[in-house]
TrEMBL record:
Listed name of the protein: Annexin
Keyword Calcium recorded: yes
Assigned protein family: Belongs to the annexin family.
SMART domains (UniProt xref): ANX (SM00335)
Cross-referenced Gene3D superfamilies: Annexin
Length: 315
């Protein structure tokens, strides 16, 4: 385990997560129970333990398991389990920074790029978090994340993603920013540059004032302006970024309604110790159905039980 992991860990997690540290934590007992469960292929015990420990505690359990058995816990899970449950429990074992790096790598792997998944991570994380994720990416894959992004994307969309990776908050004047954005749409072809510069370099309060002022100045919703002025990946990227500035929890709830297993697991694992309660509330407001109930309509078996354990309860 990289000792720097624990230094950065505390900076990630807030108090609005559904998974909290287990109060009666006993890593030796957990490791012994997991060993027995792996031998019996007892999925219920495995998911019960791993979904009821914080990620930091899971790292301790994995190390204790290694010390006691001279075996790798992840390898044991792969041998004992299969399918979506195996994937989910392995994701829970992955340290947060490495997990986000893994998701980004998967979004760029193979033929074609998963732009939506790239945007989900880059638009919902702070500049500080993205620097930590970039460092984890380089450590795990021996490649620079920014170079990988540039190699998989192009044009204004690539510029947007790189700006997100390097975003730092700088002061701005709301009126001037509004004028800058309005002027960017006055030519024959809209200029994405001002949008990228402003939306990736101001704090959220400032940007919400800018977006509201832009709507008042143009008489159109921001999404309508983007729809009319841009096309392709850059329109998608700017639209997602605006949604995340206005209400990131609503955006993530919308992502969950797509109901694809990698999307659901990605969001739930990534946000389980940070702000999944906020996403749950947004999901209920958006759909009229609790996330807990929606999961039961979509998944089944032990995989469902693991997801429900992460979700925790009805709203």
């Amino acid at each position: 385990m990289d000792p720097d992991y624990f230094k950065s860990y505390d900076m990630w997690w807030g108090t609005l997560g559904t998974v909290r540290p287990f109060s009666n934590f006993n890593p030796e007992q957990d490791a012994m129970e997991i060993q027995a469960a792996l031998e019996k292929k007892d999925a219920v015990t495995l998911l019960s333990i791993l979904t009821n420990r914080s990620n930091e505690q899971r790292q301790v359990v994995a190390k204790t398991f290694q010390d006691l058995t001279r075996k790798d816990l992840a390898a044991g899970l792969k041998k004992a389990l299969a399918g979506d449950l195996e994937t989910l429990l392995l994701e829970l074992l992955t340290p947060p920074l490495q997990y986000e790096a893994q998701r980004l790598q998967q979004a760029m792997a193979g033929i074609g790029t998963d732009e939506d998944s790239l945007l989900e991570i880059l638009c919902t994380r702070s500049g500080k978090q993205l620097k930590e994720i970039s460092a984890a990416y380089e450590q795990v894959y021996q490649k620079e994340l920014e170079k990988e992004v540039k190699g998989e994307t192009s044009g204004d969309f690539a510029k947007l993603l790189v700006a997100l990776l390097n975003k730092e908050t700088v002061p701005g004047v709301v009126r001037r920013d509004i004028e800058y954005l309005v002027s960017s749409m006055n030519g024959k072809k809209a200029n994405a540059g001002p949008w990228i510069e402003i939306l990736t370099s101001r704090d959220s309060d400032h940007l919400n004032d800018v977006l509201l002022g832009l709507e008042l100045a143009t008489g159109q919703m921001v999404e309508q302006l983007l729809e009319k002025s841009f096309s392709g990946d850059i329109r998608l990227g700017l639209t997602v970024l605006v949604k995340c500035i206005q209400d990131p929890y609503h955006y993530l709830a919308q992502r969950l309604t797509i109901k694809k297993t990698p999307i659901v697991q990605g969001i739930m694992v990534s946000h389980s110790e940070e702000d999944l309660l906020c996403i749950r509330a947004a999901y209920l407001k958006l759909t009229g159905t609790s996330l807990y109930t929606a999961l039961q309509k979509q998944f089944k078996g032990d995989h469902l039980q693991a997801l429900l354990a992460i979700c925790r309860s009805e709203d």
